[in-house]
Write a structure and sequence with these properties.
The chain has about 210 residues and is α+β, with helices and mostly antiparallel strands. It has helices at about 1-40, 40-60, 155-160, and strands at about 65-70, 80-85, 105-110, 130, 145-150, 170-175, 195-205.
Length: about 210
């Protein structure tokens, strides 16, 4: 009796395994298909998205700025970063900015451009997050912070920091030409991605000096 039961169990397992495996395989394929669809024509869509920021600049006089890359003589709009200044009440009113070799203390959240085709069923109306120091809502008073050398960051973010002052919070739009260009950076940033950073400059220290503790 026991041998017959074991035999029947083996048959059941043998029948069910392909079905279970097929379910897993189907889910993986669906996810891959969604990923592929979400980033279809990614370069062209990023080109259109970044070009549209010129309209935001024209409409947002006083809150939007267009900054030339520190490393090249601008020849087109993709040699600039666009920034939207976000008032938070934490601005210090100081007029000094970091230099290229300085150290900075930042909090930030990095996103891709918004996508219309959802990956999870909800979509990424604000763009998928690829890196962040934020837990919960963005708040310069409670955000976790990190330290970097300005020179260690992608060209576009370095460019923005060279214009920021202590306490500033900006939304920085970086063309892929000043980001990772035609290279993908890990699995979260496809090639030809516009990078969007909400970033707060909490403090900076000149080369050879230590950042004060918060």
């Amino acid at each position: 009796m026991k041998e017959k039961l074991l035999k029947h169990l083996k048959v059941i397992v043998y029948i069910l395994l392909p079905l279970v495996g097929g379910g897993w395989l189907g889910a993986a394929c669906s996810k891959n298909d969604a990923t592929t669809d979400e980033h279809a024509n990614w370069k062209e869509r990023n080109d259109v998205f970044f070009a549209s920021l010129e309209d935001s600049l024209a409409r947002g006089i006083g809150t939007w700025r267009k900054l030339p890359s520190y490393s090249k003589t601008p020849k087109s709009n993709t040699d600039y970063v666009y920034v939207k200044v976000i008032p938070t009440g934490q601005e210090t009113g100081q007029t000094t900015s970091p230099s290229y070799n300085d150290s900075v203390r930042l909090s930030y959240e990095g996103r891709l451009m918004p996508t219309a085709i959802p990956l999870t069923g909800k979509g990424f109306a604000d763009g998928a997050v690829f890196d962040t120091t934020i837990f919960g809502s963005y708040n310069p008073l409670t955000n976790a912070t990190v330290k970097f050398k300005v020179s260690a960051l992608v060209n576009g973010l370095s460019t923005a920091l060279l214009y920021m002052h202590r306490g500033d919070t900006w939304l920085v739009y970086i063309p892929y030409t000043l980001g990772y260009n035609d290279k993908a950076d890990n699995t979260k940033i496809p090639a030809y991605s516009t990078l969007i950073f909400q970033v707060t400059l909490h403090d900076f220290a000149t080369e050879g000096n230590k950042l004060p503790k918060m």
